What we know:
- This is Schlafen AlbA-2 domain-containing protein.
- The chain is α+β, with helices and mostly antiparallel strands.
- The chain is built from 14 helices and 15 strands.
- The strands form four sheets. It has a five-stranded antiparallel β-sheet. A four-stranded mixed β-sheet has the order 1-2-5-4.
- It folds into two domains: about 10-160, Methyltransferase, Cobalt-precorrin-4 Transmethylase, Domain 2 (2-Layer Sandwich), CATH 3.30.950; about 165-435, no CATH class.
- Residues about 300-305 have low confidence and may be disordered.
- The protein starts with 7 loop residues before the first helix and ends with a helix.
Amino acid sequence: MSVLxxxxxxxxxxxxDENDKVDFKSSELLTNPDGENRYKIAKHLAGFANHRGxxxxxxxxxxxxxxxxxxIESECLSTISEIANARCSPTVDFSHNFYSNQxxxxxxxxxxxxxxxxxxxxxxxxxxxRSDGNIRKREYRIRSGDSTRLVTDxxxxxxxxxxxxxxxxxxxxxxYFHTHDYEPLSVSPTPIYFLRMNDLYDxxxxxxxxxxxxxxxxxxxxxxxxxxxRRALIISILHRxxxxxxxxxxxxxxxKVSDIDINKGYEFESYDLSTLKIxxxxxxxxxxxxxxxxxxxxxxxxYFTDQDKTGLFIPKGGEVEVSEDISEINIxxxxxxxxxxxxxxxxxxxxxxxxxxxxxxxxGNPHERVDGSKRTITGSIQMSTEFAYPEQDxxxxxxxxxxxxxxxxxxxxRYDWEQFExxxxxxxxxxIENKLDELRYLIDDRVE
Length: 448
């Protein structure tokens, strides 16, 4: 007998195959809650709670079709609550949705959707066996793909010591100065990332006339200005990753792996940036700016002596991609992790940021005006990493995590205006030092 589904939410739920967030179970587990069925329910409760949480849908067969069996909501919830408290330690938290023919959700029978919550700030959930009220056996499970399996030794250590970070996110603010002709601006001090950005804007200055024409367009000019900044920052980051010492990264990862007494999940290799194919049709057509040519010219200027140690340091079999709109860098290894470095545009302003000691903003002198020949661009780099744990093994997860931290150290920590701002000298002291330098110059000039 086919059961018709009238409820849209239930219909949507049943369109998905079983995965790490959804599991389908027969109504028999609730209508006949013997010892074996209670154990089955308990292991799925624990498995989902030890992962990211998920849904157990009762009253559905293996083909995702409702069985048409009537369930009594209160009795089902009483059984599940008893199992969550008696067969799981610590207990598992959940909520539920109940769909029935009486509510016109289905043409026959009932479906119970159990929403299992991920454990929060608690030890991992164990499936337990008790004797005389005392726990005599604990079994730890985790949801992985479409099954709920026993955890490995490494996973158990991880579950007890920390909640695995399945996603890592960090961001940093970036500011850059240039002239109205898109040439690098000679000011001091500046963050270290200005070195490469200056090279890029020096390259862009070759197209100053073409750029000016494009940016003067009232409809698309502002958008193109954003695009130039994003591309410059993307190229700068790629180049920075390309010249990072492989030995230093490998040593750092090896030390972290050794500290927790595991083996590396995979080996690493060098990725040749010349194989990165990016056709930037927008700027190539508008101003003649060729992304690949610019990147190639910068890489010819590598100041690393050991050429075998350059190139992007990535896992063997990994890939590097740049999005079509040249706003994201993706570094990933299938079934292990994906790192996304996204460039966001924030604003632009005339003059230098007021916190910079050479800025003429807020100096208290009404006769000093902001220098209109100087411009400041502000954006941000957002880095996010998603791991495939627990589908990947624990060694792979920890290796991926350590690798992601290395990328964050290279990129986000280096391109950090706020960190640089904290190191800026006091404006008054800076002005005094400049005056002293001028006096020294005059004295030296007279002595000569």
